[in-house]
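Chapter summary example.
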Amino acid sequence: MRYEGNPQSRATVVIVSVDEDTLETISDTLAAEADFQKSSVDFGEGLDIVLRSLPDVVLVGIDKDPGRAVEFAKLVRKENARVTLIAVGGTRDADRILAATRAGFADYIVLPDDTEQLRVSVQTAAFHAEEAEGKGLVVAVVGAKGGVGCTFVSTHLAAELAAIHRVLCIDADFTMGDIAPAMDIVPKDTMADLLPRASQVDERMLTGTVFVHPSKVHFLCQPDDIDRVGAVSGDDMYNIINAAAHGYQYVIIDIGDQLDEATTVALSVADQILLLTTPDVVSVRDSHRMVKAMTAIGIERKRINVVLNRVPKQPFLTREAIENNLGLRIVGSISDDPRRVDHAINDGKLLREVYPKAEIVSELARLVGLLSDDPEDLNPSPDPDQKKSLFGRFFGR
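The structure predicted for these 397 residues follows.
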């Protein structure tokens, strides 16, 4: 599991909306602790820098415009849930401290009085990244658009891994999640039961909520009544994934095709992302949009692995055309076999249970190999000088 920060002993810090005297105090205090810009930036520029650079810490002056500082913090938390926000003020004000806490600030520091507290808070953020070591591998499965087979691929990939590993498959499609019916299971507890306790979730609580399938996969499902879940915060999603990564060797997250606060966090902390698409113009165009959206929130392209699903014997688009227009390699493909797939889904069974010798079963099993290779080796960018096909006109490239 990844941490959205810079895993090194010196923290990276962005300083927003502080005066010259406070900036000087911060610079003197953190000279040996952190890397930061020489001047303070305003809220607009600060948000842009935070989203591009993913710092460990954002120091926000709260005296000049407390309301703007609070709104800025909410925006940062929505886009980058794991950054450490620290409010910096000149006096202790109970109402202001309460507002800062509610907005997501981890600390409220009065300068120049609390320089040692500032140093400790920044050091803690710098070493927070090391917590990621020893955790399970988190794989997010995201669709270029609805109906490309995210649930099918997520559940079958999890089942292949579960033969020799401890695996959890999370249904993170909070609008139309359908892992439970697809696997013909009726879970006693679902995401709706876990979310109210997400701030305290641990391995024991999580394993008490999941459904253990005969394939040995543990499933965390969505409820039948999707209104029971409601909006899910980035922090709650992070806490659930963090607990899962502590308790399982592999965590497979079925994201579907919706990018919201919770799924953005899931993508941000995933070690690998499988972008599922079909070889047609609409799906590949939506893949291009999805890649653009993910990179805009700071997700490195090297973590995005393209998998083709439902590939007919004579696809309309070639692999080469798709790769050239996405700027990413296709690392796996699954044949179009609607008769067998529909049979398995309607029976609530894994494909290998009903058609163990089918080629598509072997193709699904080969996806496991994607998780053991270096993503940079899997996903080198195609040659930018290679001549683009006419298909490129659909993408404005």
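To summarize the output: The CA atoms of residues 311 and 335 lie 5 Å apart.
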